[in-house]
Amino acid sequence: MRGTASQHIDHTASRRSGPRKWLKAVQWLIGAGLHPKANQTTMRIAEDLANRMDYDLGHVLYGMDAMAERLDLDPSNVRRHVRYLRELGALAWVTRGTRANSRRGKGQEGYAGTATVYAAVIPAAFDHAMGHQVIGSGYTARIVVHLSSRPAPVDNSSEGAVDNSSERSCALPSLTVVKEESQVQMVGGVTTTAARSQQTRPTKTSSGKKRTTILGSTVTAAGMRLGDKLARAIRRRVPWARRASHDQLRWVCADMGEQQWTEDQAVRFAVDAGHAHRAGFGWDPSRPHRLIAMELQAHRAQQQDDQAMQDALAQAVAWEDSTAYRQMQAARALFDIPAEPEPEPEQEPERTDDDRRRARMNWDNWPDVLDHFEEDELDAIDLYGKPLVNFAIEQGARARRNDHAYL
């Protein structure tokens, strides 16, 4: 997609995506050689963008200078490889940055330019190679997902709503209640030692099936012992998780124990789960173990989706081997249509002194002069002259200092 108009979300032929699936699509696009200049540096820039993307919309703030510093690249290289991603149909503008003062419209002092925001998009070439069925067109297109092989949803219609009475809460969907065998149910408001011992005693089912964890793994003694250790670590190091009992957390951590997680892994998972839902900040969950259980299920579903994507990539065919390519070649042969010739590179006309004179008259055009200088230093000096180039460099440095001063 060479034209800049087709690289905006309002006109792009690519569909929107989240960062994880988008990154796999970019890897396939670069590996397939669909852009002659895209390489491993392009992939590094795509990974940096994916790490900062919004998971719902797939939007990301460009931040060229910060990205260049993180990746140890020249800013002109970052800008060049981002353009390759746009030309591949993998990035589209949400808003294009300008040097207009965005603070002035808000009634604020200082200077801050309008930032560039990109959206993650996946072109139709990838969907065709993967055999995806797409409905709609352009940015709002969607993939048709067959749910026949997916597990049936949990029927929790009989459960009550999530207890979330605090202000500005972020209620989560209700989960199926996991009742441990050690819990005691009180009958008539009283209980006895005999009743407690009877209720805490494991009961064997007639089918003889072994107990399973939340993710469906068979419960083992070693896994429960490690889960008990991980539950204590989470209660000790994650404050918002202390509203759950130790038994509740121990049962949720049984899956972590079966997978031989370390204490640091378990605590980091709980912390990330809380950050995703602002637990401990704007919301104190009354059932923290349910939040962790939901994130475990989401983590398992994501792993399955990633594995399915890897299997699909392994079975994908090249464009030359696809059915669409063979049909196109057959149609050309049937109607005697000659193959499309390779476009000859456009040759720029030779620069004259009159061109240089006109280019050096407008010093207000210093942003374009700076962009030209970052692309090709010698060519910019030849066209604009050293005084105008030096002025553009000074203005760009002053604008960046103002941006940093008001961040």
The major beta sheet can be summarized as: 4 strands, antiparallel
Overall pLDDT: 78
What would you call the structural class? Answer: alpha+beta
Quote the beta fraction.
5-15%
In the CATH hierarchy, what is the class of the largest domain? Mainly Alpha
Question: In angstroms, what separates the terminal alpha carbons?
Answer: 34 Å
Query: SSE string, helix = H, strand = E?
Result: EHHEHHEEHEEHEEHHHHHHHHHHH
Low-confidence stretches: 159-198, 203-207
What's the total number of strands?
8
The percentage helix is 40-55%
Total domain units: 3
Q: Helical segment tally?
A: 17
Structure description:
With 407 residues, the protein is of the alpha+beta class. It folds into three domains: 5-147, Arc Repressor Mutant, subunit A; 211-314, no CATH class; 353-405, no CATH class. 48% of the residues lie in helices and 6% in strands. It contains 17 helices and eight strands. The chain has helices at residues 19-31, 40-51, 64-71, 75-87, 102-105, 124-130, 193-200, 221-237, 246-252, 254-258, 263-276, 288-315, 323-335, 353-359, 366-375, 377-384, 386-405; strands spanning 15-16, 59-61, 91-95, 98-101, 113-114, 117-122, 134-135, 142-143. Strands 1, 2, 3 and 6 form a four-stranded antiparallel beta sheet that branches. It has a two-stranded antiparallel ribbon with strand order 4-5. A two-stranded antiparallel ribbon has the order 7-8. α15 (366-375) packs across α17. It is flat. The two termini are 34 Å apart. Mean pLDDT is 78; it is low at 159-198 and 203-207.
